[in-house]
């Protein structure tokens, strides 16, 4: 009987799903290892958090993963300080600061956080309803975003609430890096966003 219980316990241990173990951290909380900086905007680590902040040129800037990802679930937390206009690019490629790909918006209230925008292409593909965005987004506080990309489908959630779901053939054909964006700014309205708990589960 003891041997049988031991076998059952061992089988349960190795066969039970452990979702936390399926995720891999993309940010180590110490430096920018695994990432590439594009542009003159500031990307740095402070108190274990990743910070993006307008630089001297106040132009668009990006922080992209060294690895490419096709099908995945991405989770992260963000907090908007100052003007929090930013975004998370999927299946993207960069030449300098010109990016090709699709952005899941991160922006101040009323600016379609969670919607999907095609850079240098068709523009907005889908936006959450104003009511959904207002109910989900927490200005000046930490927000949890989840993005699932599989085949030609993209779904975004904000603080547990689904923002959008999109099926798009062009997205389905692409692959590329994940990139965080900092939006261009003015001297009177500079951008600053904090990020943490950036992790990915590959679905391939």
TrEMBL record:
Transmembrane parts of this sequence: none
Annotated signal sequence is 1-20
SUPFAM superfamilies assigned to the protein according to its UniProt record, in alphabetical order? Concanavalin A-like lectins/glucanases
Residue ranges constituting the 3-keto-alpha-glucoside-1,2-lyase/3-keto-2-hydroxy-glucal hydratase domain according to the UniProt record: 22-201
Annotated Gene3D superfamilies: Exo-inulinase, domain 1
* Chain segments annotated as coiled-coil in the UniProt record: none
Assigned keywords, A-Z: Signal
Presence of the UniProt keyword Transcription in the record: no
User: What is the recorded name of this protein?
Assistant: 3-keto-alpha-glucoside-1,2-lyase/3-keto-2-hydroxy-glucal hydratase domain-containing protein
């Amino acid at each position: 009987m003891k041997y049988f219980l031991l076998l059952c316990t061992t089988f349960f241990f190795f066969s039970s799903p452990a979702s936390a173990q399926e995720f891999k951290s993309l940010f180590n909380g110490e430096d920018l290892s695994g990432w590439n900086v594009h542009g003159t905007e500031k990307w740095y680590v402070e108190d274990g958090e990743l910070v993006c902040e307008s630089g001297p040129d106040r132009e668009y800037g990006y922080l992209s993963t060294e690895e490419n990802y096709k099908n995945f679930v991405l989770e992260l937390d963000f907090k908007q300080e100052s003007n929090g206009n930013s975004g998370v690019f999927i299946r993207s490629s960069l030449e300098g600061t010109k990016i090709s790909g699709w952005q899941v918006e991160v922006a101040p209230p009323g600016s379609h956080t969670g919607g999907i925008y095609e850079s240098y292409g068709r523009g907005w593909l889908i936006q959450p309803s104003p009511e959904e965005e207002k109910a989900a987004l927490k200005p000046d506080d930490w927000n949890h975003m989840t993005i699932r990309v599989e085949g030609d489908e993209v779904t975004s959630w904000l603080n547990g609430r689904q923002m959008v779901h999109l099926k798009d053939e062009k997205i389905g054909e692409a692959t590329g890096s994940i990139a965080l964006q900092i939006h261009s700014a003015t001297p009177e309205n500079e951008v600053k966003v904090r990020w943490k708990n950036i992790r990915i589960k590959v679905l391939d």
